[in-house]
């Protein structure tokens, strides 16, 4: 019976074309879904390409049919096959007047073509026409296409129209026009540099959405040039303040947070503006403090804002109070069970540690937990934090951990990064050269030798050669001997990285026989082994031969008789006939050297001469006379490479230093009368009139209490709630189980020099919350070695750390102050009274509060934003009731009991099951259990 | 800036891929496929109950982060740079999914496969040129519905219903 039903439905679908598509398309998707292998899929797609190629050649294809062909082309290309044969049809479709077809055409074109494709030229004219269309949907489609298709050459063709659209009556169009302009700015800053004032102008647009969109380009502009936007600090602060005070229409709320994405963008901008600027930091400190108090840390988006606040505080010059609030927020993140929040906490810690170095101390156990977490992302973030807090007291432990982790991973990209970090830390903080050589050689080189920079190898060689720098020859020779010994030991291991072998050969050549412990024949035998074992690596061979030469030279110079081992002899003979001229030369030199007498050899290769400075005349001044002569006899003077490349006009689109728009050969306005260039010049005038903003009065009408309750009772709201539930629960709860899994053996601390070997690292760990009283002693020791204090209890730690750490009060003081208060340039927007705020000498909070008060009282001409949002003031009481109500209802829905009863009687389960059946039939996803996205809603 | 939006199913088949980064956009199709495969291989190797974040410099250049969310048979993936907030991006995926859910009433993978152009319409209302344009799913819905209505009007001879709800109503 069930089968009959499904067959019936399939038949019905086939004829009708379910999902609004034809049977052919359904069949295509179905067969690809059922494909068992990539080869089978490729075969299906190739035959589809053949079909489409044939069909597209047919004359008079109906438009509806054509639309479907194009969708099929897009699908094929998404699967990774070339659909270029059909591009032209997509381009043609954009010319159609029918909105559906036009949009399909634009969609296909934006997916098919990149900015530099030849066919773009054919679309520019259509875009120009569409930008002027009366139908704003057409305009939006064109703006969308602009963002993805316009290149540097074609920007001038559409720029005037886009600028016009900044004043379009529809806010959706204004928003997109701003984004398009932003995109132009990213692509070619010079092309829109005269239009930048427009962004400022749009900042006080009537619509908050447009204002929010303006923040994106402003963020980029401020990143490039902070100083010219300092005047906007108080405006941004006042916008942020008003957003947090819920003066925006309620529709901007997201999970009970008022316009969180706008808040985040504003915080990012404030972070830029407050960086190293004391007066700006003071202006924004009050609103930041408010945010910490107001943010709801139970929702994801609330935490996003909290994190952004932390980030902002780490950039500006914060007050001690703010710093404390940030530290509190971080500790909440770190204590959370969610891996996401832990990640953010570690990241925040890494940022704040620059300002107050002792903040990490109280979180040491949490940090160590993260270090042993099975989550790779979290682990890497924690290593980044450790990297930032390394000092000479903990470098050994940290580098040890890092190298262990480096050895355990396979990701070459990250391996390289962590190897270079190890080297950097070791070079900077190494407690002893002995340790440095051990770590860098034994660990980093052995396991990531091919990935590290060749400079590291050179540094290592120099270190061994120069020793401690002081005139302590005894220590130097000990160091060298230990290097030689450990090298000889490692050499026997198979498959060492080439760079490491080069270092080994060099060290053995220079110092192998220096102490007299090893005989020349022993060392030379080892070197021959290296050259034999890695016969395909010419660089290593070269190093080995040079090392041999040095060994023999030292022998000859000291008057001993040299007997060349048979294998060395055969190696030399082999190299004499080598294809590499370099190796040949080295071999010939070695052969020649063997025939010389002691005195000659000593002057050619003196003992331990690698440290002697060789003066290099970089300018090759000794050739000046020759050049002069050549120029006099008519030669061209030399032009350096840099100068030459400047002379070539590079048309690379992302070269930022183009200051003039390249004159494009194509005229896109060919069919119109040439326009007077008044538009851009008009737009570039400096003074921007502030429009009288009045949207809050009208925007507030629709969000009455009735609309809220109506929405709450609707079915959409019900389902959405479930979505939120899904969103919140699995990620926030699940990690409790993860934290109780035993740590990976690879990350055990058994390799620590200061920790007992093979102790409790395999014990299952209790969760962080419950283990406060009894903490793994090993972990404690690790914490102590990382953070430099004992971790038995907080008070203990504080007292013990007090001795060698700067007192908290001094540490949290802002590191540097900007003594010159920045005098803002004349305020274009005339927001508030910036002069009053920026010149503050007394208490900034009071001053600011007074400003806010006065602005809300007299409103009038001073504070534009105040006027903007002042209409909202009377409504605040009702909104707070609303939010309270919605919170109440929300919390009742959050209760799992009611939640399930709601879903079980929900109308969607049947539909979803039907859909599921259909999915199975279609074979899109044969292995899955229930492909409905929200399957756990169905219970 | 958002560099890419991707959706793929748990077997690694791309369901939607949109790149905003100039450099990635100029790559040939095969290279873009390689990126998608690379992302998938990283995602599929992640254990459950770990964070939704990844640093993905190796595929998308320096300072690239990735946020993903796994719903039933689909991965939703956002790739972006340091100028965006990870947690906010996670919520952006949520906005996208909520909107799709409203759009297709109980969205599933099949909807995404067959309503390719509508998917892009929705996405274009949320992310525009690599920047977050709109995060209110009601507003997005309004815009999308307006487009569909006006498309239907301009295409009055349409023989085929255009959305799943239409298909369902037809039966």
From TrEMBL, chain A:
Residues 58-595 form the Clathrin/coatomer adaptor adaptin-like N-terminal domain. Residues 730-746 have a biased composition (Low complexity). InterPro entries: Adaptor_Complx_Large_Subunit, AP4_complex_esu, ARM-like, ARM-type_fold, Clathrin/coatomer_adapt-like_N. Residues 747-764, 893-907 have a biased composition (Polar residues). Pfam families: Adaptin_N. The keyword Transport applies. Keywords: Golgi apparatus, Membrane, Protein transport, Transport. Residues 696-865, 886-939 are annotated as: Disordered. It is found in: Endomembrane system. Residues 817-827 have a biased composition (Pro residues). It comes from the Eukaryota. Residues 709-724, 766-781 have a biased composition (Basic and acidic residues). Subunit of novel type of clathrin- or non-clathrin-associated protein coat involved in targeting proteins from the trans-Golgi network (TGN) to the endosomal-lysosomal system. Belongs to the adaptor complexes large subunit family. PANTHER family: ADAPTIN, ALPHA/GAMMA/EPSILON. Adaptor protein complex 4 (AP-4) is a heterotetramer composed of two large adaptins, a medium adaptin and a small adaptin. This is AP-4 complex subunit epsilon.
TrEMBL record, chain B:
It is a peripheral membrane protein. This is AP complex subunit sigma. Keywords: Cytoplasmic vesicle, Golgi apparatus, Membrane, Protein transport, Transport. It holds the Pfam family Clat_adaptor_s. Belongs to the adaptor complexes small subunit family. InterPro entries: AP_complex_ssu, AP_mu_sigma_su, APS3, Clathrin_sm-chain_CS, Longin-like_dom_sf. Residues 1-149 form the AP complex mu/sigma subunit domain. It is found in: Cytoplasmic vesicle membrane; Golgi apparatus. It comes from the Eukaryota. The keyword Transport applies.
């Amino acid at each position: 019976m069930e089968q009959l039903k499904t067959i019936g439905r399939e038949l019905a679908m086939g004829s009708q074309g379910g999902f609004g598509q034809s049977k052919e398309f359904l069949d295509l998707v179905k067969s690809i879904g059922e494909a068992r292998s990539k080869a089978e899929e490729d075969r299906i797609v190739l035959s589809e390409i053949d079909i489409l190629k044939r069909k597209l050649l047919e004359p008079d294809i109906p438009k509806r049919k054509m639309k479907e062909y194009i969708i099929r082309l897009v699908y094929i290309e998404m699967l990774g096959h070339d659909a270029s044969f059909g591009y032209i049809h997509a381009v043609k479709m954009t010319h159609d007047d029918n909105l559906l077809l036009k949009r399909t055409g634009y969609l296909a074109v934006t997916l098919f073509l990149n900015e530099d494709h030849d066919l773009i030229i054919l679309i520019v004219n259509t875009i120009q026409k569409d930008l002027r269309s009366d139908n704003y949907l057409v305009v939006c489609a064109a703006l969308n296409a602009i963002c993805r298709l316009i290149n540097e050459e074609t920007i001038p063709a559409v720029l005037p129209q886009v600028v016009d659209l900044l004043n379009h009556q529809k806010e959706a169009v204004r928003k997109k026009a701003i984004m398009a302009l932003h995109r132009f700015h990213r692509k070619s800053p010079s092309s829109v540099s005269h239009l930048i004032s427009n962004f400022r102008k749009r900042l006080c647009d009537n619509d908050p959405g447009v204002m929010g969109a303006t923040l994106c380009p402003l963020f980029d502009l401020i990143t490039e040039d902070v100083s010219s936007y300092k005047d906007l600090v108080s405006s941004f602060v006042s916008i942020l303040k008003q957003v947090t005070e819920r003066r925006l229409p309620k529709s901007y709320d997201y999970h009970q947070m008022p316009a969180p994405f706008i808040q985040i963008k504003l915080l990012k901008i404030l972070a830029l503006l407050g960086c190293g600027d004391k007066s700006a930091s003071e202006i924004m400190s009050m609103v930041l403090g408010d945010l910490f108090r107001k943010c709801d840390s139970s929702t994801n988006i609330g935490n996003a804002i909290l994190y952004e606040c932390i980030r902002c505080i780490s950039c500006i010059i914060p007050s001690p109070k703010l710093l404390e609030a940030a530290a509190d927020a971080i500790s909440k993140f770190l204590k959370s069970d969610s891996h996401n929040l832990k990640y953010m906490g570690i990241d925040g810690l890494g940022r704040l540690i620059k300002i107050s170095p002792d903040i990490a101390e109280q979180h040491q156990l949490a940090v160590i937990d993260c270090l042993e977490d099975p989550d790779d992302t979290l682990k890497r973030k924690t290593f980044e934090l450790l990297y930032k807090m390394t000092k000479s007291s903990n470098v050994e432990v940290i580098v040890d951990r890092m190298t262990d982790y480096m050895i355990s991973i396979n990701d070459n990209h990250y391996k390289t990064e962590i190897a270079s970090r190890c080297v950097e830390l070791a070079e900077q903080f190494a407690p002893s050269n002995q340790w440095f050589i051990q770590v860098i050689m034994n660990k980093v080189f052995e396991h990531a030798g091919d990935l590290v920079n060749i400079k590291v190898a050179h540094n290592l060689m120099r270190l061994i050669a120069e020793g401690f720098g002081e005139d302590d020859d005894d220590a130097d020779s000990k160091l060298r001997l230990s290097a030689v010994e450990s090298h000889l030991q490692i050499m026997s291991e198979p498959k060492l990285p080439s760079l490491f072998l080069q270092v080994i050969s060099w060290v053995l050549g220079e110092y192998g026989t220096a102490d007299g412990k090893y005989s020349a024949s022993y060392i030379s035998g080892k070197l021959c082994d290296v050259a034999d074992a890695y016969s395909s690596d010419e660089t290593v061979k070269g190093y080995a031969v040079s090392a041999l030469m040095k060994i023999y030279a030292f022998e000859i110079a000291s008057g001993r008789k040299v007997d060349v081992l048979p294998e060395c002899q055969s190696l030399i003979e082999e190299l004499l006939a080598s294809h590499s001229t370099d190796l040949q030369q080295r071999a010939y030199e070695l052969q020649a050297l063997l025939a010389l007498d002691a005195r000659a050899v000593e002057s050619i290769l003196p003992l331990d001469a690698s440290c002697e400075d060789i003066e290099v005349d970089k300018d090759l001044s000794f050739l000046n006379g020759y050049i002069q002569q050549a120029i006099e006899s008519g030669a061209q003077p030399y032009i350096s490479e840099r100068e030459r490349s400047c002379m070539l006009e590079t048309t690379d689109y992302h070269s930022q230093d183009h200051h003039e728009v390249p004159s494009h050969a194509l005229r896109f306005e060919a069919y119109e009368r040439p326009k007077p260039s008044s538009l851009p010049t008009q737009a570039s005038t400096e003074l921007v009139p502030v429009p009288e903003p009045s949207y809050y009065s009208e925007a507030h009408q629709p969000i009455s209490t009735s609309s809220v309750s109506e929405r709450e009772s609707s079915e959409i709201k019900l389902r959405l709630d479930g979505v939120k539930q899904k969103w919140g629960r699995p990620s926030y709860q699940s990690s409790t189980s993860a934290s109780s899994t035993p740590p990976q053996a690879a990350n055990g601390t058994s390799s620590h020099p200061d920790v007992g070997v093979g102790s409790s690292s395999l014990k299952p760990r209790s969760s962080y919350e419950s283990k406060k009283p009894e903490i793994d002693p090993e972990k404690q020791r690790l914490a102590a070695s990382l953070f430099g204090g004992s971790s038995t209890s907080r008070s203990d730690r504080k007292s013990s750390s007090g001795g060698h750490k700067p007192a908290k009060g001094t540490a949290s003081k802002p590191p540097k102050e900007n003594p010159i208060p920045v005098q803002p340039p004349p305020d274009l927007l005339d927001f508030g009274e910036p002069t009053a705020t920026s010149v503050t000498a007394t208490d900034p909070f009071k001053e600011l509060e007074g400003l806010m008060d006065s602005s809300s009282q007299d409103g009038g001409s001073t504070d534009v934003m105040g006027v903007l949002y002042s209409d909202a003031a009377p409504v605040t009481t009702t909104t707070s009731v609303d939010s309270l109500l919605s919170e109440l209802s929300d919390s009742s829905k959050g209760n799992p009991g009611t939640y399930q009863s709601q879903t079980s009687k929900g109308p969607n389960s049947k539909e979803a099951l039907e859909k599921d059946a259909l999915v199975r039939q279609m074979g899109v996803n044969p292995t899955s259990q229930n492909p409905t996205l929200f399957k756990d809603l169905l219970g | 800036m958002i560099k890419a939006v991707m959706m793929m199913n748990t077997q690694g088949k791309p369901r939607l891929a949109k790149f905003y980064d100039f450099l990635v956009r100029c790559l040939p199709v095969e290279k873009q496929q390689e990126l998608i495969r690379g992302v998938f291989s990283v995602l599929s190797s992640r254990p459950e109950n770990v964070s939704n974040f990844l640093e993905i410099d190796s595929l998308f250049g320096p300072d690239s982060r990735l946020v993903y969310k796994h719903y039933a048979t689909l991965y939703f993936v956002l790739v972006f740079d340091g100028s965006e907030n990870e947690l906010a991006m996670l919520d952006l995926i949520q906005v996208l999914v909520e909107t799709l859910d409203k759009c297709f009433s109980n969205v599933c993978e099949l909807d995404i496969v067959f309503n390719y152009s509508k998917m892009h319409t929705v996405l274009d209302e949320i992310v525009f040129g690599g920047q977050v344009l709109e995060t209110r799913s009601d507003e997005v819905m309004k815009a999308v519905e307006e487009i569909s209505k006006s498309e239907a009007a301009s295409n009055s001879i349409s023989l085929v219903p255009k959305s799943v709800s239409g298909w369902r109503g037809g039966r």
